[in-house]
Write a structure and sequence with these properties.
Helix 1 (18-28) crosses helix 7. It is built from seven helices and ten strands. The strands form two sheets. It has a six-stranded parallel sheet with strand order 2-7-1-8-9-10, sandwiched between helices. The chain is 38% helix and 22% strand. The radius of gyration is 16 Å and the shape is globular.
Length: 201
């Protein structure tokens, strides 16, 4: 029987490319299990229920919270709620699979309290200007939403010191490979600074 694996938690500021990097890991390394979050927000163009997110109603999200079926959850950008279903994470770890959560900063802090043995990775942009360019370039938010997300990003960037290791997102596939390398480094004697990928999450 395989021994339980160590969970890797990937977080970082809005629009840094968490989702893009996670998608690259999923595409190039099918052996890595990546959690699919539940969210109350509406799907963006091209997003598939059960692949990118589990899109649920507010009522269903309330039920998941009440039943303690979420490992973590948070209200993001003061609009939608996101959460990580608990049971799939526990099953993947018990099976010994390399496992990763791609979540926001609030969620990472909750997981730190409940699973301090996890490896916490902070994905950061090469520069603040690049983060702004990526956020504006997505074209998925109006001006008010962009300003709200940029204000959130400034706060999130200040949280880097809370994490075990940082990966700078210069190029998506490089970042993805660094994440996978961290998963296989013997569970975590990782350097405190890495270099990696562009994209938008």
């Amino acid at each position: 029987m395989s021994r339980p694996s160590r969970l890797v938690v990937l977080a970082g500021p809005t629009a840094v490319g968490k989702g893009t990097v996670a998608a690259a890991v999923r595409e190039r390394h099918p052996e890595v299990w990546i959690s699919v979050s539940a969210t109350t927000r509406a799907p963006r163009p091209g997003e598939v229920d059960g692949v990118h997110y589990h899109f649920v109603s507010d009522e269903e999200f309330d039920r998941l919270v009440a039943a303690d079926e979420l490992l973590e959850w948070a209200t993001v950008h003061r609009v939608a709620r996101y959460g990580t279903p608990r049971l799939p994470v526990e099953r993947a770890l018990a099976d010994g699979r390399p496992a990763m959560l791609e979540i926001d900063l609030q969620g990472a802090r909750q997981v730190r309290r409940t699973m301090p043995e996890a490896l916490f990775v902070f994905l950061k942009p090469p520069t603040w200007d690049e983060l702004v360019r990526r956020l504006v370039g997505r074209g998925t938010e109006d001006e008010e939403q962009r300003e709200r997300r940029l204000a959130t990003a400034r706060e999130e960037l200040a949280a880097e010191d809370e994490f075990d290791v940082a990966v700078t997102n210069h190029e998506v596939h490089q970042a993805a490979e660094e994440l996978v390398a961290l998963m296989t480094l013997g569970h975590g004697s990782a350097p405190s600074e890495r270099s990696a990928a562009p994209g938008g999450s």
